[in-house]
Amino acid sequence: FLFEGVILSLVVFLQNGGLLQCSKLNPSTPILKVFCDPERDTYPDYRLKRESLNYLFSLALTGQDRQTATFKILVFIYWLAHGTSYKTVSETFGIPLSNATSIVRDVADKLVKLSLKIVNKPSSGELALTVQGFGRLARHPVFEKAVGAIGGCHVRVKIPGVPQPQQRPGDQPLPEKALPTINFQGVCDHTGSFIDVFAGLPGSMTDVRILRHSPLYKCALYPPPGCFLLGDGGYPCLQTPVCIITPYSKSDQNPVHVQFNQHHAMALSSIERTFGIMKKRWHMIFLQPLELHPSFIPKVLAVCTVLHNICLRSGDLLEPVKIEDGSKVTEALKEWLASNETSGEVEKIYEHFP
């Protein structure tokens, strides 16, 4: 066994897709004792309940050597949950530092591939449930043409080897904008499940520019004809190439427009809630500066979305944390439409909207 000095024998029994038990654990690695005891709560150590871990293993455990694969996934999930150094991970699991580093990188690559199964757009049959769901969220039938909500957040980074802004004794903590950030754009359905993600561009770029660089926009992948996405004031209101409906300006006091905004906000809350849940579960990723190479961060964020969707499917639910993001655009941007864009302003008010 690859980690013979750590685990004397790791035996995984699967029944109806669930992990039941593992045995003969080396007592010098208590973090694995928690996992192997079916009566113990795995959430404090892995930020995933046992049901979510079972679901993940049912998707990720392929091939002959399931013992090694299980161990590697646990190492990675622990690293993700605590945002800790590779040195701490190696000490916690009793493995060499080089192994800890390679395991994290290797598992991240493998779990990103699961996004093809887990983070995907609704099928034609699922679209009917999605539009009904947004109609219920908005409490108005006009929004039964919505098939997703788009939004974004900033992930702070501390690039290894690059000096950070210095503080003098007694200064206030550095604001988020003092640190470099990476943008993370996501689209979710009415349940809060991610259906499209795009990450890796600098945080200095606006939501509009991030959108225009994304495959969602460039390839007009979604939504289907006759449907639209919901976006906040940081996005343009568009018909093409991607139909996005945004609220009216805050300064617009037309009673019909104000009412529209109220229903729009109720439906748009799905993406806000989704990011809030992500930040609560993976708070060491989203709420602390990531000390990782920028090229690796998009993979980590992609894995977070995969695990988020797995948790939803497993009933592993959390209440969102509310985070004030001072860098977020909250009002419509006064930018010219690109040559390939068509304004969606005329789509905001339908004849059925009172």
Automatic annotation (TrEMBL):
Keywords: Hydrolase, Metal-binding, Nuclease, Nucleus, Signal
Location of this chain's protein in the cell: Nucleus
Keyword check for Oxidoreductase: no
Cofactor(s) needed for function: a divalent metal cation
Keyword check for Transferase: no
GO cellular component, one term: nucleus
Main localization (coarse): nucleus
Gene Ontology molecular function: hydrolase activity; metal ion binding; nuclease activity
Any Pfam family: DDE_Tnp_4
Protein name: DDE Tnp4 domain-containing protein
The organism of origin for this protein: Oncorhynchus mykiss (Rainbow trout)
